[in-house]
Amino acid sequence: MRLLVIEDEERLATALKRGLEAAGYAVDVAHDGRIGLYMARENPYQAIVLDIMLPGLNGYRVCARLRAEGLEVPILMLTAKNGEYDEAEALDTGADDYLAKPFSYVVLEARLRALLRRGGARRQAVLHIGDLWLDPAGRTCGRGQARIELTAKELAVLECLAERAGEVVTKTEIVEQVWSADFDGDLNIVEVYVSALRRKIDAPYGRASIETVRGSGYRLIGQGHPHDRHTR
Ligand code: CA
Question: Domain span at residue 158?
């Protein structure tokens, strides 16, 4: 899952990026409201952490513009003054939740998880593709009753494919959704993750659910019994 942190205090922004990356998220940082707004429009983020007092454009305005443009990405606003006025205004401009500074990192991560679980409108709680299931917010995956252990990045790559099961997803689309903007490596890194996924979600179960579409990308197809659940 890719997140955007818009925060001008560099130490705080760096600490958030480090902590969230350790928790398995891909994190981009903007130190300026205008740049943050631009990045939020251009990239597929699953959530945004947004400070209020920012150079360029303040957090209320960034939030209001994104909502006015129809972007439904969940936004967690960081309020500075710990006053009711700030918090009410944060929610009025379209933020989904707020956290007063100073805050504990553990609380921030928990609030983010809750936001991701509640979803930015389109997010489905648990994805089912045949008997393969994936809970993006809970970070778990399995086949039927069996739970499958995946790394954070493997899970994120699988999520890209699962959200669009049956369709071809390109390597570029996967990299954009799973890696942060400072990734400047080879698109072929995706192949490494797909191989790992095949070893974990397919081979032990006698399946071949991730198809390679030559020259285009990959397609996840439903296989196995869905156990009375919805198939996609
Ligand atoms: Ca600030």
Answer: 127-228
